[in-house]
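Milestone M4 deliverable, item 7.
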Amino acid sequence: MAAQASSTAALSLLWSLLVAIWKKTLGKLFFRDDRHQQDHMPPGPRPLPVIGNLHQLLGRPPHQALLDLSKRHGPLMFLRLGCVPTFVASSAEAAREFLHTHDLVFASRPRYAVARELTYNFADIMWAPYGDHWRHLRKVCSLELFSGKRVDSFERLRKEEISSALATVEEAARASSVVDLRAVLSDITLYSILRMATSQEFGGKKKQLSRFERRVKETIEHAVEMIGALNVGDYLPSLRWMDLQGYGRRARKLHALQDAFFQSLIDRKRQYQGRGGAGAGGVDDLLDVLLASQEKNALTDDTIKAVIQDVIGAGSDTAWVTCEWAMAELLRHPTAMRRAQREIDAVVGRDRVVEESDLPGLNFLHAIVKETLRLHPPSPVILYESTMPCVSSAGYRIAQGARLLVNVYAISRDANSWERALDFWPERFEEGAKKGVDVRGQNFELIPFGSGRRICPGMGMGLRMVQCVLARLLQGFDWEKVGEIDMREKFGLAMPKLVPLQAIPCPRRS
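Output delivered:
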């Protein structure tokens, strides 16, 4: 909310500063009827001078504002965000054209100022522009970091971190106390991914974080929030130097702390490897893999730090946000929760903890995860930038450097694609037309991780984490909601609930 208020205040100030100039010198230039220039563009709302349609994305989560605009202007519309020509896809058909037919055209990401600062000048996999560097990193991630074998190798670490966190839930259950599920879930996912990525065990066995560890944890959370914020300077580059919202200053401070942390991990790893050591429990973590292949893959230290930052920041956020939404929906739909628990009891029993090898047999749990990702995609709007000019099938001219916003939120709630589109109904994936629909980028009505070349490379690891955590929460406890659940959303790089979820656990496993 603070980021959104900052964006609104910055635009208000900008408008006040420029209105006099427009009236005297730019009135004719900016206020002329330029509809003749839009003949080869999709329909869209008329832009204001200079700021274009930016004002229409403020005051509420942008994915909701874009959804409302698409209801008036259609599933493919054109906006001018500041000086940036922007296409917005809000249907499966529109997404398919851009991410399949024109996949190579929209294979890059916007070069946002905060992302530049936090990712070592786009040295990472998420924000790197399309080119040799990105293709090389993608290959490293696919073959070495996120392969099925690599994900499987971290099973013990995930189990340990989940069990450690659930010990505090068990204490609360015995006392019939309220649990802050967001705190539990964010800790599970962050600590698990930190260990998988770096073998760093925050807080030790008792999870008592040092002052430095708390600062690093807060920095990771703030960095993800800042990258997802609407920064006026990204759309009006001539004003970027003013840093109206203060994002540049904050990003530099965050980057300094993150860099010190990641460099200390690299230095420690090199010393440890020099003595012949391996990762935690004898398993190479992701940092081990990157350092071991540094020379072969021509990776700089900055690139390694940028990739690890992607894994920790985006990976942990996606997982806990999805788990929180899933638990919120299950608390509001207790019949679905009980059915999931019965399935776990039938497949696993109640005399042992659910293992990752049990997950393939938990079909209804998979349906719950897919339905959660449909209604509450972790990235509600996915951003792309065109690498070359092209013409769409409808004859729209797309210039190099144009932006594409794929409104995943709107697509997955489109009544033309989904029966009972606004209902939480996991059974839809068990029978009928949606039985074979998956989240891995081939079914364009459900693309929470994107599609095509820029699909999330860590998708498999994230899904495994979500499934493991939910299975343990449902196997171990019955859950009672605390009053009515606030389902409002908070926009960012991820889309968490606006209000953290609380619930009362009751032990159920023998």
